[in-house]
User: Fold these one by one.
Assistant:
Number 1:
Amino acid sequence: MSASDYSIPPDLARALRNARTVAALTGAGVSAESGVPTFRDAQTGLWAQFDPCELATPSAFARNPTLVWDWYAMRRALVRGVAPNAGHYALAALDDHVPECLVATQNVDGLHQQAGSRWVIELHGNITRVKCASCGRQALAWDDAGPQRPPRCAYCSGPLRPDVVWFEEMLPDDAVAAAERAVDTCDVLLVAGTSSEVYPAAELPRRALRSGARVVEINPLATPLSELAHDTLRGPSGVVLPALVAAAFPA
Ligand code: BJW
Ligand code: ZN
């Protein structure tokens, strides 16, 4: 289905058109149409035997740092080869129509920034950055596939790791504070491409509901948020988001 065939409820289009502040919370589904597998998709090939949820933990890295490093190196290479899709561009286009627009993303691929969104909060870090697991300093250069994996920190010789947030780790305070402020004050919250299962990000739409925002879910499948949201737009975000923006702001 193309965006022009997707039907948007007229009162939702009106609410978006009249919004002063729009926030979006995005997840892996928004990058699926760019070719980035969602987190809970079955792994393929070499990685089929591993559960992503079990690789994205400090204990997995402590147990088998080379395995976890290699998994992230493979995903970094994949992310380098992809481009934003129509869903990313539709969210970026909102910046030109809405006085205040923020994208809080759980994605680590940088595709919202590449699409041109001006205010992006990365809740779970960024896979293209690498930091030291011991001293926390960012690495400026490293070899993804060298003989020593993970490579060592130039300052303290600690093992390098991706600069992402693993299960049981705290999200960056400033990112959480900015996202909370946005959902507490927005008129409309778009929740796109997330299973709404991972906290504290999954709490953000609930906060928005308590503050009186109109909460819109965009996802081909039902999630725990579906029955709470004011609108559930079923379909891929690469179709639904452009349709929503076109309905609210016709050329
Ligand atoms: C499409 C589509 C298309 C497909 N268009 N849609 C409160 C209650 C219960 C548990 C907890 C809680 N607070 C904390 C926890 C523990 C834990 C947690 O939430 N666990 C749950 C699993 C129950 N949370 C944490 O540990 C967090 N830390 C924390 O809270 O610190 C305090 C603490 C300390 C010590 C102990 C306990 C707490 C940290 C969470 C970090 C998550 N990190 C990851 C990895 C990032 C790095 C990497 O990429 O490797 O983030 S895990 C993974 O899940 C990744 C994602 O960002 C995140 C969310 O996944 P997402 O984006 O929703 O993707 P999927 O795959 O789940 O869903 C895709 C969706 O897209 C589906 O719905 C599809 O239908 C849809 N879709 N195609 C639109 N074309
Ligand atoms: Zn170090």
Number 2:
Amino acid sequence: MRVPMIAGNWKMNTTVSEAVALVNGMRYELDEIDNIDKVICPPFISLAAVGGLIKGSSIKLGAQNMYFEGKGAYTGEISPLMLADLCEFVIIGHSERRQYFNETGEIVNKKILAAPKVGLKPILCIGEKLEENEAGRTEEVVTEQLRSSLAGINNLNGLVIAYEPVWAIGTGKAATGEQANETIGLIRCNIADLYNKEIAVGMRILYGGSVTAANIAEFANQPEIDGALVGGVSLKASEFLSIVKQTSEIRRRLSR
Ligand code: PGA
């Protein structure tokens, strides 16, 4: 049985003091919810402060991005080595990075290759754009993104995939549970094809895009969906807690 995961992507929000306040507002309750991995991904500059507050708890920390080189003259970049000291997970290939910062499949692949070398677990984001969805190209686009991201990766140790249709991110227009379940099932088939069935069955694949406390049950009840990557509402402690609680309860019930 796969352990479900809810990851909160705070994006470019919160100052250090705001990040500290947000974590303080949820860490005790969050810590107590079991049967689920709870990951928070604040901005780089708050990782150390937030990490200090959740130390010794069951809450895990992730970064939102990284560069693929270990160190050197890359002004302004953050290396895998720097992150490995601070956190366990790193979001890679988020559609906002692909869209606004020209991250290509090749760059995403280099990052996916670099992360495990220092023990970081990538949360790899893939998903189709609206026009691709409307043209019926979802399967083709998602398959291509998955295969190019994972080129040359032999060991998927700890890697998590987030299926995030671009048209659903930050729009308030989430996919339906059935739609997301179908595409995630397809991603799982691709993993079986690229690696083997055992790896595919064990792989955690999340849904992301306008997930809220009001719609999380729709996703958590689907057999292929192992949780969610939550953006906007992960900045609201009560809503994030509700998403985590609901997912934990639903998955516990389904596993009986
Ligand atoms: P959203 O973002 O929940 O605000 O739609 C999801 C994401 O970008 O991971």
